[in-house]
Amino acid sequence: MSYFSPNKTDRNAVKPQAAPEPRVETKPAAKPQETMSAIGAGVLITGNIVATGTVQVFGHVIGDIHAARLVICDGAQVEGKVQAQEAVIEGKFKGTLHANSVKLQATAFVEGEVYNKSLSIEQNAQFEGIARRLDKAVDAPSTAQTQPAAAIAYATAPATAYAVDSHANGQAYASAAADERRQAWTS
To answer: What is residue 168's predicted lDDT score, i.e. its pLDDT?
Structure first.
């Protein structure tokens, strides 16, 4: 027997192998997929939109949008009130925008009020209105706000209707005070 190297019979001997340890496959935790909604070119939507993910507008929207992220693409138009964590505007926007981060791309045309934490305006973007700093960050809408019960409650909230009185030189007034104002205008 040699102390330094195994002899021929020891080298050829098969050593018993230990049973392999069972491997447990671990998959990374599945993160929720971000939902993306698109309003196609040639589509007109009149109404309010609430989305927990990204909304891309290629068409025309007249109404309020509340989304985690809003992209108004080149050639698209949005008129109304917008709340989003991030807003990227390449097309036309007219109204009031509340967003943590606002990016006006070179092809953007914005008319109205922009409330933001961060505002970037590329060269050749057109902006007519005011920009103000947000006091409180905008949150993405919750999934509860996208449920039918929340949508019905939002849609049935009392709205202010306006009427035009021909005796008031075309002035508009809220219908709730219509009778009082009508008498004041005609008196």
So the answer is: 44
CA distances from 52 to 20, 33, 122, 146, 185 (A): 47, 11, 27, 8, 46
94 φ/ψ sector (left φ>0, alpha ψ -120 to 50, else beta): beta
pLDDT digits (tens, 9 = 90+) for 87-113: 999 999 999 999 999 999 999 999 999
Q: Which secondary structure element, helix H or strand E, spans residue 184, and what is its range?
A: helix 178-186
The tokens for 73 are 């693409």
CB 167 within 8 A of CB 185: yes
Is residue 32 packed enough to be buried (19+ CB in 10 Å), middle (13-18) or exposed (0-12)? Answer: exposed
Give the pLDDT confidence of 11-30 residue by residue, as tens digits: 565 566 666 665 555 555 55
Instruction: Give the position of tokens 């008031």.
Output: 168
- Which residues on adjacent β-strands are paired with residue 82? 65, 97
Average pLDDT of the chain is: 77
pTM above 0.70, yes or no: no
Instruction: Tell me how many degrees the CA angle 167-172-176 measures, rounded to the nearest 5.
Output: 100
